[in-house]
Amino acid sequence: MKHLITAMSLAALGAGPALADSLLEDTVAFTAQIFQIDTGVPGLVIAVVRGDDSVVYGFGETAIGSGITPDGDTQVGVGSLTKTFTGLSLAHLVADGAAQLTDVPGPIAGVYDALPERDGARIRLVDLATHSSGLPRELDELDGIDKYSDASFAANLADDPLLFTPGQGILYSNVGFDLLGMALGNIAGKPYPEVLQELVLDPIGLPNTGYDLAEGDNVMTGYDWNGNPIDFATFVPNRGGASSLRTTANDMVRYLQWNLGAFDADTAEMQAISHAPWAMRDGRDPAYGMDESGHMDAIGLGWVVMMPEGDRPLILQKAGGADGIFSYTAFAPARGVGVFMAINQFNFAASPAMAVVANDLIAELAPR
Q: If you write DSSP's letter for every residue of 240-295 in order, what string do you get?
């Protein structure tokens, strides 16, 4: 087995980007290969950034029996990694003076006249972006109403759904981030996908990231826990804040490099607003649903913040799961190292293990 793994790793190294140093290539390829073999997931793609270097590798198959190995251009659905892009859209609007984090979202026709409040506390943009709104994780399904329609949001918001006073606790909420996307569109006066395109995707240079259904053969097919394929879900506009983005490992390299400050200094304010720990765990009651990929110490605008521990530096991270694909991205802003990984099966043991692998890689590769 040792010789097989070595041969496979060397074959992968031959396809690696020319700019990366050999130590980075060897470490990433070997680690990812072992993980894919050990977990038995059909396919895996990994991208790692360290300083000016980056590598992208794929192992297994994009779909069982396809014979296509995932690569930097493979289309991948990243689920809740979308939330970090929504947080960055908010950071841009704040930096541009179009919004403040403490603003209370205005009315949205057909969805709500005013968001629910409790104990005199109203939900602010920063509460939506840090899972601190008190809103539940998911919408309730209602008879005769499409789950993510305007009418569904309106009905779910009508009967005091808050689980705690806004700002009091932290509870993972897809509802909150979907409402944040709607609110950002309301502020900008256009649909949220256009806001994201204009403020984030185009300026950073992410041509293969968006909400459109993936096309062609180089698409990562997701599988459920029983090995059954899952089709990409058709994009529903009201879900644009919390999930639904599709991207590639090459685009995620660019996204990580941007978040690590490799580009124009004019972006520093947006980075700082996006990354800052706006909601600390200490004293929050409740604090649930945030630790599946590592212990949450604070929340940035969509990012989970993990304080340094041992050899591991401060890390900002986010996990995602949708359409049979689990994904994870993390970076150490003070060390210039970032990782993106995706696997194409709802393997509930492999998902947290993937986060451990990525976080350990950052610790191993981060200069001290």
A: TTTS--EE-HHHHHHHHHHHTT-S-GGGHHHHHHHHS--EESTT-S-EES--BTB-
* CATH superfamily, domain at 22-82+194-365: DD-peptidase/beta-lactamase superfamily (3.40.710.10)
Helix (H, G, I), strand (E, B) or coil at 197: helix
pLDDT tens across the length of the chain (368 residues): 333 333 333 334 333 334 457 889 999 999 999 999 999 999 999 999 999 999 999 999 999 999 999 999 999 999 999 999 999 999 999 999 999 999 999 999 999 999 999 999 999 999 999 999 999 999 999 999 999 999 999 999 998 899 999 999 999 999 999 999 999 999 999 999 999 999 999 999 999 999 998 788 999 999 999 999 999 889 999 999 999 999 999 999 999 999 999 667 788 999 999 999 999 999 999 999 999 999 999 999 999 999 999 989 999 999 999 999 999 999 999 999 999 999 999 999 999 999 999 999 999 999 87
> Cβ(245)–Cβ(210) under 8 Å?
yes
Outline where the chain has alpha helix (H): 2-14, 22-39, 82-95, 125-129, 150-158, 174-188, 192-196, 202-204, 249-259, 268-275, 350-365
Question: Could you state, in order of their start, the residue ranges of all structural domains in the chain?
Answer: 22-82+194-365, 86-189
SS3 content of the chain, % helix, strand, coil (to 5): 35, 20, 45
pTM to 2 decimal places: 0.93
Distance CA 342, CA 353 (A): 12
Burial code of 11-34, b = ≥16 C-beta within 10 A, e = fewer? Answer: ebbeebeeebeeebbbbbbbbbbe
Strands 43-50 and 337-343: antiparallel
DSSP state of 81: G
What count of other Cβ atoms lies within 10 Å of the Cβ of residue 37? 16
